[in-house]
C-alpha cells in the first residue's frame, strides 16, 4: 500500500498464500511388477486454522499422500513428482536433513498405531522432550516442565509420573494421547492425523477426536484428518477430499458434500456406515469388488468395476475433475442425484448388476434420485 496523500491510488496487497499448496503430486514405488502409482496427480490447498478430511478405503493413497507432503518416504525405490509449497516455500525438493527444520516445528503427524510409532525402550518424557530440545533453545528442566504440561493438556492423569514410564505401561488411549503430545510439542502450524483412532474403542475414539479438535482450536493449527470413515469427519472437517486409487474423486465443503454428493464412491462409503436406527444384527452394506491394481489400473474410471452407475463410457473414458458448483469437484460421467445418474442406475438395477442391486435393497429411499444423497445414502 502506498502512503496516503502521495497522489497515487492505493494498490491492493496480494492475498497471502495458503499454508499448504499441493499441485499434481505423484508418488510411486518401484516393485518387481512395475511402478505402483500410490498417489496419482493430487492437487489441494489448505488455509491456516482449517481442517481437511481425507477419506477413502485402505489402499486409496491417503497415508502415502500425507507422507509424501511431509517427505517421510523411503529414499530407495520411490518416485515423487509435483509441487508441495508450505507458506509459499517449495519444499518438495528438500533433503531429509533440510526437512528436519520443518518436522515437529512447522508440521507434525499423529501416526496410526501408537504402539509402533512410540519407541518401546525410551521413557515417555524422553520422547516428548527430544523434539523440544532439537527445535527450541531451552534447558532440560524447562523441556521437562513443558512435557509435563503437554501431558496434562491431553488429559493424562499424574503427568509427572507418566514421564518416567514406558509405552507398554500405558493403555491404548493413553498412548495415543502421548502421540498427540509429541506431535504438539513444538507448536506446529500443520498437523496430520493419520487414522488417529483406529485401534481404540468407540468411547475413547470420541474423546481423542474431541481432544485433537480442542488443541487445534487453541493453537489455530491447520489439520489434515485422514480416515476411512465419513462419519468421523462429518462434524470435524471444514472440507472433505475423497480419494480412490491414488486420486481425489470428489472434494467439497463438508456441508455441501453430505447434502449434494455426486461421486458414486462417496455414496458407497456413506452407505457402509452403520446406522443407529437399524435393528440389531442387520447386515452391513459393503462395496462389492476390490480396489484396482495400481500397477496396471483398468482403463476408464477406476471405480467402474464396482460402481452401481457404470455405463460403457465409464469403462472406456476416464472422467476429469468436473465442477458441480464453486468449490465442489467430482469425477463421474453419471453423477449421483442427476437425471443421467438415475437413468444409469435404473438400467443397471434392471440388468441385475451386483452393485446396483445392493443399493436398491437398502430400505432408505426408492432410488438414488428420489431424495437428497444424504438421505438416500443407501439408494
Number of helices: 14
Distance between the termini: 55 Å
β-strand amount = 15-25%
- The value of Rg in angstroms is 23 Å
Give the helix level as a range of percent.
25-40%
The H-and-E topology, N to C, reads as: EEEHEEHEHHHHHEHEHEEHHHEEHH
Name of the CATH homologous superfamily of the largest domain: P-loop containing nucleotide triphosphate hydrolases
CATH hierarchy: architecture of the largest domain: 3-Layer(aba) Sandwich
Kindly state the mean pLDDT as a whole number?
88
Please give the CATH class of the largest domain: Alpha Beta
User: How many structural domains are formed by the residues?
Assistant: 2
Which of globular, elongated, flat, extended, rod-shaped describes the shape? globular
Briefly note the structural class of the backbone. alpha/beta
How many individual β-strands? 12
Main pleated-sheet profile: 8 strands, mixed
The CATH topology of the largest domain corresponds to Rossmann fold
Q: What order do the strands of the largest sheet run in, or round the barrel if closed?
A: 6-7-8-3-9-10-12-11
